[in-house]
Amino acid sequence: QVQLVESGGGLVQAGGSLRVSCAASGSIVRLNDMGWYRQAPGKQRELVAGITTGGSTNYADSVKGRFTISRDNAKNTVYLQMNGLKPEDTANYYCYAVVGISPREYVYWGQGTQVTVSS
Predict the structure, then answer these.
(1) Nearest to residue 118, comparing CAs of 80, 85, 70, 82?
(2) What's the pLDDT band for 30 if we cut at 50, 70, 90?
């Protein structure tokens, strides 16, 4: 089993910054891609950012230039630095991790951390 524990959400004013973290623990044989999705009330879950083991990243168009994803492979942790936050960034942010357990890959999810941006 693999557990993902998120931290760092909260309430911030528009234009402010937050950093959320997600640490993976448990039976991790091979930790592959990691990243973040978000879901706002009444909306579908959407990909925010992803990062490979080698550090290649991808972002949703809505957050490019404002959010930065990074990871510390030694700590099995992924981070999302969010700058220039907007009210429309308000959502529950979920981290995910793709874990390789030969011959398959499995996707694990965190419990979510709430980010609220006030106008």
Answers:
(1) 85
(2) confident
